[in-house]
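ARCHIVE RECORD
Type: protein–small molecule complex
Small molecule: MD3
Source of inputs: curated submission
Record status: active
Notes field left blank by submitter.
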Amino acid sequence: MQRKGTTPATFDLFAEDTPQLPSQEQIGPESFVFRGFALPFIEQLLPALESVLTQAPFRNMVTPGGYTMSVALSSCGEFGWITDRSGYKYSPINPLTGQPWPAMPGVFMELAVAAASAAGFAAFVPDACLINRYIPGAKMSLHQDKDERGLEWPVVSVSLGLPAMFLFGGDERRDPTQRVPLFHGDVVVWGGVDRLRFHGVMPVRQGEHPQLGEQRINFTFRKAR
Ligand code: MD3
Ligand code: FE
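STRUCTURE (tokenized, with ligand):
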């Protein structure tokens, strides 16, 4: 997957189809893609991520249906997202360590607040950041995010590493989906009428990212309570 904005611009006199980063796209009435929005934060973001993962390592969770997710998960902030035999929920304790989740690093919070505000959601203070890791082949099936109590708040997502094709559906599982490619540094904000739309991620393709290697990492910032 080649990102348009990274092709050399030499003699490109008609460059309107090769937007420079950062740029903004609207994919729903209240959903926005901010291309490259996380790039100015990267130098601080990656060491903060390392520190979180040392305290709360990734694990492949098993759904209540007995299916082991191909996406590995961790969390930071006041609440993390867990599954057990009884279902999915937010918990202040990491069941793997018996400890509270690592605090949300300052740079994570700054990035989430800035992106929400750029999309018109003022005063967004997330209390949970879910961290997903996709190795090549990993995918996320079409689903809704509705375990949060504060559905009036948006979700902010940050994509790092290998690119992925995001699937954005409608309010019903059977509704058609639009495909949105997401690249290293892209930030997406979903809120309002788009908050309960079905969405998923197609299997991540084999590749090697210069900074993150053979993986895609996605942060989703939410207000869980
Ligand atoms: C649209 N993660 O963790 S982030 C998830 O790339 C999840 O890892 C995907 O879906 C990923 O639940 C996609 C994008 C996302 C997150 C929440 C949404 C899109 C959303 C909530 C409502 C609508
Ligand atoms: Fe989701």
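CURATOR ANNOTATION: The chain has a mean pLDDT of 92.
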